[in-house]
Amino acid sequence: MIETAHRASGERVGAADVAAAAQLACLLEASAPKPGNVSPARQFEDLRYEDFLASAAAIGAPLAAAGTRPLGETVRLAIEATARWSRSNANLGIVLLLAPIARAAFSTRCSPKPSGERSTTDELREAVHCVLDATTVDDAREVYAAIRLAAPGGLGRVADQDVAHAPTVTLVEAMRLASGRDAVAREYATGFEVTFGIGVPALARARGDGLGWNDAIVETFLTLLAAAPDTHIARRSGTALALEVTRLAESTLAAGGVRTMAGREAIARMDGALTDPRHAANPGTSADLTAAAIFVVLLGGGWQSAREAAAPGGRDAAAR
Q: Is there a contact between 242 and 248 (Cβ–Cβ < 8 Å)?
């Protein structure tokens, strides 16, 4: 039974630490004031900040045991646990992204390359590949059940491997079929290319530059949103709006984002532009990808190593 994972320092950490990192990633992501998303100062009619807090707490136990059970079962148990605490779908995308990373954190030694030639993040990324390559039809069946329970809006129907029916392919094969229309599925199809290739570097760079967690997370979110249209928006409201929001993220970053007064004003304007009663322009998938990047950084020791840089009165406070 796999019970321990590895931190950046090489020390072994327990399952409880993996769960704590996952919960903290969810809490940090929900707490950062990302344009168009729920935050402490922004509630949706059908989704409150408290729903994200409850969902973060609920997934701790299932993810703590991610190394001891199949991936699909972990996803289903996490969504079932969430449903006991929230009536809203606050975290399906997050769970789908965090579960493979959590399982991979318990098995980072799957590459023939000597460990000394790779960073901890590289090892984790290789382990995620191993986790995905090993998925089964049973994993797909469990994930389909979790998706049906969460009942995400705008899901629609497809001709092949629709979630309303029993799957006949492995989980990663099913995700490949959906990768053209869903960014979370695309992560499964590409070995978490966006999480590790864009999200993690953006967050690490922001933290390394001295940004506090809120600002670093907002910058990471904007970077991910600027890199590709948000598929949550596209699914609910169409490709044209998704492209428009991506261009808005690009211009907001170009204005300086969280690092300048002009950029902060652009963020405020962007938040106003994305606000409507239907939440049609809610970049929910980009928020999910942001949570995955935070989780990876925390697993690599990002919370401990940045304590000095995150001292009270740091960049978050000074920039305002």
A: no
Residue 268: strand, helix, or coil: helix
Q: Where are the domains of the chain?
A: 4-307
Q: Is 255 helix (H, G, I), strand (E, B) or coil?
A: coil
Which uninterrupted H or E stretch holds 6? strand 4-6
Burial of 10 (0-12, 13-18, 19+ CB in 10 A): exposed
Query: pLDDT (tens digit, 0 to 9) for every residue of the chain, 320 residues total?
Result: 334 454 544 455 578 899 999 999 999 999 999 999 998 988 887 789 999 999 999 999 999 999 999 999 999 999 999 999 988 888 999 999 999 999 999 875 565 555 555 678 999 999 999 999 999 999 999 999 999 999 876 555 665 677 778 999 999 999 999 999 999 999 999 999 999 999 999 999 999 999 999 999 999 999 999 999 999 999 989 999 999 999 999 999 999 999 999 999 999 999 999 988 777 899 999 999 999 999 999 999 999 865 544 445 444 433 43
**Alpha carbon distance 164, 208 (integer Å):** 45
CA distance 244 to 139: 36
Answer yes or no: CATH 1.10.4200.10 is held by domain 4-307.
Answer: yes
Cβ atoms of 82 and 90 within 8 Å: the answer is: yes
- Distance, C-alpha 253 to centroid of its chain: 20
What is the gyration radius of the CA atoms in the chain, in angstroms?
A: 19
Q: Give SS3 for 310.
A: coil
